[in-house]
Amino acid sequence: MPQRKTSRRRFSMAVLVLMFFAGIGFVAALDFGIRSTNTMEFCTSCHTMHTNFEEYKETLHYKNPSGVQATCADCHVPKALWPKLVTKVIAAKDVYHELVGTIDTPEKFEARRWVMASRVWAKMERSDSRECRTCHDFSSMDLSEQGRSARSRHAAAEDKGQTCIDCHKGIVHEEPYEPLPETAAAD
């Protein structure tokens, strides 16, 4: 009996050690996947993202006097782990639609652009523009350094509890045209 007990104990320890290393491997693979899919190269590798990338290159988020650049992930992927994982799972549908041909050409992408943009705006409204506020928080703004209009609007937006996306929908990507009611019903 004692030998059997020792064998079980060794087996249990071996299983625990294997589970520990498997857990480390899983975390490493997850981290690698997140880091790989958060790069500008990955985000712009789809043919249809070329238009978005060209629009982005014309903004201050890409090139500015300070040299600080906001990448796709800075604006579209939360920093906190759980919201980041949820975002990655939801974003997989865009890759899926690229692969199955729903948005694989610029024309198809443009036809679906309003729907896709509306989803992103709704997400940003729900999160109080969490990703924007990583860099642009009201408490960090020096309103005295802003132009009169921006100073007035930012102060009013803060007082009203507005979120960035309420006013800045077309700040990086061109704001798509809302489809006509008869074409919107077809979606």
TrEMBL record:
Binds 4 heme groups per subunit. GO terms for molecular function: electron transfer activity; heme binding; metal ion binding. Its main location: membrane. One of its GO terms (biological process) is anaerobic respiration. It is a single-pass membrane protein. Binds 4 heme groups per subunit. Heme 3 binds at C132, C135, H136. Residues 9-176 form the NapC/NirT cytochrome c N-terminal domain. This is Cytochrome c-type protein. It comes from Marichromatium purpuratum 984.
